[in-house]
Design goal:
The structure holds two protein chains of two kinds. Chain A is an alpha/beta fold. Chain A has 25 helices and 30 strands. Chain A folds into four domains: 5-55, ADC-like domains (N-terminal domain of TfIIb, Single Sheet); 66-135 and 332-493, Rossmann fold; 138-328, 3-Layer(aba) Sandwich (Dimethylsulfoxide Reductase, domain 2); 566-677, Beta Barrel (Barwin-like endoglucanases). In chain B, the strands form four sheets. A two-stranded antiparallel ribbon of chain B has the order 1-8. Classes of the chains: A alpha/beta, B alpha+beta. The interface between A and B is large, with 43 and 36 residues.
Chain lengths: 685, 172
Amino acid sequence: MKDKRLIPTVCPYCGVGCGFYLVVHEGGATGLEYRTDHPVNNGRLCAKGNAALEVLHHPDRLAYPMKKIRGRWERITWSEALNTVAAKLQASCDSNSPDSNAFLASAKCTNEENYLFQKLARLLGTNNVDHCARLCHAPTIVALAAAFGSGAMTNPLADLARADCIFVIGSNLAANHAPALHWIWAAKDRGAQVIVADPRHTATAWLANEFLQLKPGSDVALLNGMAHVIIAEGLADLNFIEGRTTGFGALAACVKEYTPQKVTALTGLAASQIVRAARTFARAEAATIAYCMGITQHTTGTDNVKAIANLLMLTGNIGRKATGFSPLRGQNNVQGACDMGALPNVYPGYQKVDDPEAMTKFSRAWHTDLDTRVGLALTEMFKAAHNKQLKAMLIVGENPLLSEPNLPFVREAIHNLNFLAVQDIFLTETARMADVVLPAASFAEKEGTFTNTERRIQLLRQALEPPGEARGDWQIIAALAARMGFPMHYASAAAIMDEIARLTPIYGGISHGRLNRRGGLQWPCWDHGHPGTSRLHVGQFTRGRGKFHVVHDRPPAEQPSREYPIVLTTGRVLEHWHTGSMSHRSAVLETLAPGSNVDLNPGDAARLGLMEGDGVEVLSRRGKIQGKVHADRRVPRGTVFMAFHWRDAPANELTNDAVDPQSKIPEFKVASVSVRPLRTRAAGP
Amino acid sequence: MSQPKEIFVRMDRCVGCHTCELACAVEHSTSKSIFSALSETPVPRKRLYVEAVERQNVPLLCRHCEDAPCARACLTGALTQDELTRIVSHDPDRCIGCWMCTMVCRYGVVGRLKEQRVAIKCDRCPDREVPACVAACPTRALVFTREENFAGIVRAQAASQVAQGYAMGKNE
């Protein structure tokens, strides 16, 4: 093909950060080519990655700003759109206080965009800025900051291949991070042992040498039980504990009561399984733990992560090659959005807003006074909107009307806002409820950087022009800021990164010029001569000594009752991605996974008189949905599984918005529901 | 003569992502690109199938059997087996859509083109060094190698598991 150009880019779906080449011909994307020299995926892509370009030229793309006038969308000019949003945000500032605005940043957007967005919120006088990390790895950040001093994945993905034991708990990475799987297979080829703990027999469980099918919400019990065995059998790494940690005595006392017999009762596992898993893990030369939403999305999320940190320190599996901690992140730039301070309690680089020194530093750099009070977390924003404390919201590239728990409440909350503006590439469920919609550019249509799950900052190059009048998010944010009296003069995304580097020590050596190479750089990268850091906590923890935390088994917030006897647990499927604003618009992915299911154990289905494909109503204390039964042996008895991707059967109508008190993450993984047949089946032969 | 390469499946590695099916359909399209391919007529069609059975995904694709039953059953000569490579290929111009091949294939991997009454099956990607499905598989469940090499891979895995069990036994 003549004029065919290959542009290296980063997949816009999950946090693995796979690289591939975008094939561009005559200004349009015509295909993708595998990038076999990429350090993350070596050319491998999952079905979503392969279909990543389908959303680019989709007819549903938002191409111009719109305003809702008497319930109908009308096209408006950029100038009117920006003036309206600026005036509404300022109005709620003037008549109330800056804290009556809230800003929802996006883990889909670049680092530069998230930086500008949180800066805008803070210039307007509020720390009410957050993003969907609240719903996925908030407990990781809180727990790891307490245990190690830094809340990110410790080792590169490629290290998985060199581990002798890989313990996967609460993660269906075979479906959600499929290209990362090849590292685990490489480890298995070397003879590594894989332990998988999950209430469902997932595709990841097929990897396991030891599969632990535990009861939902009993993770702390299992992890403490393993710690008990490790200490009791003398398998703990006493040199590491002595040299690098504090609080071991308290941990030993705490896990003393978690005997295999007691843990059996709490988890539903056999005592021999717990002992075997503990021995395999502790005896491995290099062991690592990968986890995901099954650990974090609980009211005990932070405790769960602390229990994982305990196990790693107990066995000395941190700060070395092929060991450590792999919180697998679900969005292409959720790590970056956290790094950039799109969080209510920290500035870029995790510098605390309530630390006067940090406040002064940013106040000087941004030439304004800053608030030292921690802002509202995402889950608190909707509570504040519901009771009308919050007046206006600006949401960028997020779709809370499918992704938040207890959707009936969130709908009411958004309804109660005076003003909502949404910036996105498609008219999402949330954008439909907005007053003004701003059309944004997709990953292929702008410059910037994404930071993947292993802290790897990768450069994104513009391959295409955005459709119609759509603009890059950073350009929209800068234009908006200018209209509110905060001129932002950036010539390019690279110039924004230079400002980030000046203010964010862990990104201190990052510049677009340096990133223009295969695989980018991993933070912390302190200065322009620094090569980046592939492993954290080598020799010493970020906080000095690693801290053991005492954590105890606590039951989920909601227990099965007579009225709601079944446990609902939610998750994702391989072919779709989160609220599906992109993946549902991919013809290929829709063909592979065309609809939602209510997955029930065949035994439960039979007991309820249900057959494959039957219509059911699922009810919780919060809402109800209708769906189709899929009888699936991988789901244990007494449990129903639903993916949260679908608008026609949104699992989050049912989920519980009770939150973990430390990290404020909701308990997506456990809710009590009842399942009723929609029609009674005629008594048949 | 050295053995020809074949497509082997490491069954335990398949996560059921269907990427191989996509890659197959795209490779057999005119544009060879995923989103232009969708609008083509005939619609590009996959020639391998990932079947989900109890707790396991099984990618099924033409085994290019020796003395291939499909080629034997084909009355028009549309299906022929290459003397040297043993690849069974299909000539749509000679196909009359009698489905004898579909009936005799024990793997159910002879399909049908949507728009025409002709059979369709794996051709081992004659334009490529490595078949498209193998190149696309993110977990490397599909392997393109010689039988002797594949058996070697399996033996190495078995040996390492036996060794590990042996070591565990000594530790108990």
